[in-house]
Amino acid sequence: MREWDTMGTSLDHVMIVGGTPSEWESATPERWGDLVERLGRAVAEAGGRWLTLRPYGGADWAAADRARRGRRWSVATAGGRCVVIVDSTPDGRAGFAGAVQAVPGRKEIDEKCVAEALYAPADAEPDLILIFGPHEHLPPSLVWELAYGELVYSDRPFAVLDEGDVHIAIDAYATRDRRFGGLSPT
Which of 31, 44, 80, 105 is the most exposed place for a label (fewest CB within 10 A)? Predict the structure, then answer.
């Protein structure tokens, strides 16, 4: 039994960040379908309802757009259901600006409405962000997500990503004391 099976991870939304838009585009539809199915199942088994996939970065917006076209899945498992969102935004600043522009004109722009626009259709910010890339750099595709999400890095190439990577990240997440900026009681 995995540690998070008994610890109650309070895991709702997982984000996986890795690969470039060009790497995404080079994946066959079969590879994408298989990857989404296995990753969505791993997140659902841990109690998560949402999984967002986002490239690490890259300047090839056209490839990013082609890679994501039509890619939103709902993965059902015996343990629950996980909706997988493929978000091809390689630049977090542009994603944030787009979210602000998506807020209805008469609505006051605040943290809640920006988060709603940025993560739609997910109704929760990422609890866990699994990053395939160097530990000493933050992905340019992340800006807003860094406020409350727990970061777990992997040195493995994105091309070999599988559900085992998700299990390792969830194990790490389950052992953390999430204080959201607060101090530990002494």
Answer: 105
Q: Does residue 45 carry a pLDDT above 70? A: yes
Q: Going along the chain, which residue ranges are E strands?
A: 13-17, 50-54, 72-77, 80-86, 128-132, 150-154
CA pair distance 165, 35, nearest whole angstrom: 12
Q: Are 35 and 159 in contact (CB under 8 A)?
A: no
- How far apart are alpha carbons 144 and 99 in whole angstroms? 11
pLDDT confidence bin for 71, thresholds 50/70/90: very low
What is the C-alpha to C-alpha distance for residues 77 and 47, in angstroms, rounded to an integer? 11
Q: What pTM value is reported for the model? A: 0.82
Angle at 129 between CA 126 and CA 127, to 5 degrees: 35
The answer to whether 143 touches 95, Cβ cutoff 8 Å, is yes
